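Q&A log
Question type: sequence-to-structure
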Amino acid sequence: MIEHVGILAIQGDVEAHRRMLEGLGVAVSEVLSERDLDAVDALVIPGGESTTIAKGIARLGLQEALRKRIARGMPVLGTCAGAILLARDVKNHPVAVLGAMDVTAVRNAYGTQVDSFAATTDDDAAAGLDDLRCVFIRAPQLVNPGPGVEVLARVDGKAVLMRERNVLAATFHPELTTDSRVHALFLGMH
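Response status: OK
Response body:
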């Protein structure tokens, strides 16, 4: 059971994720070291700028520790830039990734900051995720999913929420709404 969630606090809306998770009844702490990572049951890698977060992971010496914990089954949620970092590879200005999900991330697939938008999930969303409001800010797309990757939600036919084993990736920002269903789904992945 997930009781203590860490949020990789290099960049991104750490506080919005914290509020959402604490509202669901779990303890939350920031992760900036291997010791911090060892103290949590699960991890959120928030949105932000994927190059900045990847460089921060390298600067803090966390890449190998993150890979090992995820490979051993620690539940992880990546949102927007976090989803990019969980992919096996990246197109459109590649960055160092963790390779935890068998997908390709396409950075800034919807355009620049001024092209940001919100939309609701298509009717074929997984049970309980219908009419989910998704906020896209310089959002990536996740494409070429491997056979173990499950698409949980789409917007305009494009996959926006995917799961592979203990890894959940959202190309949008679920923390920027009042809807806690994505975070609740994440907390159920133990």
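Response note: The longest strand covers residues 158-164.
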